[in-house]
Design brief:
The structure is a homotetramer. Chain A is elongated, with a radius of gyration of 16 Å. By secondary structure, chain A is of the alpha+beta class. Chain A starts with a strand and ends in an 8-residue tail after the last helix. Chain A has three helices and seven strands, in the order E-H-H-E-E-E-E-E-E-H. A five-stranded antiparallel sheet of chain A has the order 1-4-5-6-3, covered by helices on one side. A two-stranded antiparallel sheet of chain A has the order 2-7. Helix content of chain A is 21%, strand content 35%. The first copy, chain A, has one domain: Hotdog Thioesterase (Thiol Ester Dehydrase, Chain A, Roll).
């Protein structure tokens, strides 16, 4: 089963000295920041940023995260982060990510995150909150309603 | 298919203020540090620490990492990190992790990491390096040799 | 003018792999975490932790921080953090810090932080908030009142 | 005594979600990263980057760092980092920094760092290494030689 990507953002960042470990490569945990950079750039482009969502008294915690490391990144490397929204009717936001080194377009990492909807009291939302269904409709995405 | 755990370490840590995000819970990327704490505590107990391995001119980069978040952690929470070595004959080190909140022993996170063996020139080792086979033998673990 | 220390805490921590940079020494910015560890251990011992203060609707942001690096720390080093409260009648909390490597008790860093009192609306408190004066009295410290 | 700035770089960055603490403002320790961003942008502009220096078998560890916090930064804020090289004949690199919020050009932080020259064996260089004197000459800066 392959994820079907229905919306995509591409953004860039550069590796900081403080993100590199004693092997002179990016410490593997720091990639989680680049994925968040990608997700937020996606949110900015399509109006689904952290603050956009929070305005509806909804939070979208990450409940699953998986990362596959293909090669290394060094200090000063420029990277391209591709963040794709995965098609799903479940009350979830699923993203697929690919990170490329800019100089040679080498694939460095693929990743996938699953977020759920939780209200201010911390209650898990079992169906898509209204603002999200409206957001999908506005962008012409499948909301599961005929 | 369930992972079979053949060696286990249990260690503890406490959540720092700087690890908590604006939702007042641990930022999801910081769990990667706790997993590394667990892995290194395992290494210390059984003689498989980062420096033990490095002495053999071998590095063990993480190539796969998956995390499943069950609940939240707050500033000051004490946590228990259980790190289990998974039985495999492949030239890999696979760990399973469970993180519990100490106060109520609530399961907070499960995770799994896969590491490979790479030499100083960055060449992937397709079979277990000698020091690792010896380490397994010393601990009475299955090395795949009869 | 030397700071007069009126209360002191000593705590310990250990250097994480992710805190070391490509020079194989602790990245200089990570020391700010160890200072916060020291401050919070102080707060725990004397009842002046971040949550103790927050309960009075007061926050104590750091407004000045200075660090003097004496030598390096490596991955796995155990350190001793000494945190001393500086005598002052101003509406401030001033700490002095010394970090030592545990193995040889070598002085690694000295530092100093200044915190002020701010209420929930973000208004700077020009005099010590009542809870802080009471805290000083309880511990037999000089409150500036005869 | 005021520092005399003889070369200046201006760069920009944006506050990440993971850099904000539970008070919804940038955690005070994260500013050290922005200062490093400024220093590296300076190095890129004038040919004094970390890798430029390292090529001469010299490292330039930070030995003093002081920060003065003027106001807060929130998630998503864009900031301007001004990094100025301070005039000195000592065998040191001294930078002054000002960080501004871009939206209203409000001054957020001032800081100062002192770096020394250390060779590969970790020996402190008591006079400016040749590459640094040449770098100063090339840029028309005072090298202390008539």
């Amino acid at each position: 089963m392959t994820d079907r990507i229905i919306l995509k953002n591409t953004t860039e960042t550069i590796i900081r000295f403080s993100e590199v470990d004693s092997m002179a490569v990016v410490w593997h945990g720091n990639y989680v920041k680049y994925l968040e950079d990608g997700r937020e750039a996606f949110g900015k482009q399509y109006g689904l940023g952290y603050l956009d969502v929070y305005r509806h008294n909804i939070m979208t915690p990450v409940v699953e995260l998986s990362l596959n490391y293909k090669t290394y990144l060094n200090y000063g490397d420029e990277i391209i982060i591709e963040t794709g929204l995965v098609d799903t009717l479940a009350a979830k936001i699923i993203f697929n990510y690919s990170i490329y080194r800019k100089s040679d377009h080498c694939l460095v990492l693929t990743a996938r995150s699953v977020q759920v909807f939780v209200d201010k009291e911390g209650i898990l939302q079992l169906t898509n909150p209204p603002f999200f269904t409206e957001w999908k409709e506005k962008l012409g995405l499948n909301t599961g309603e005929s």
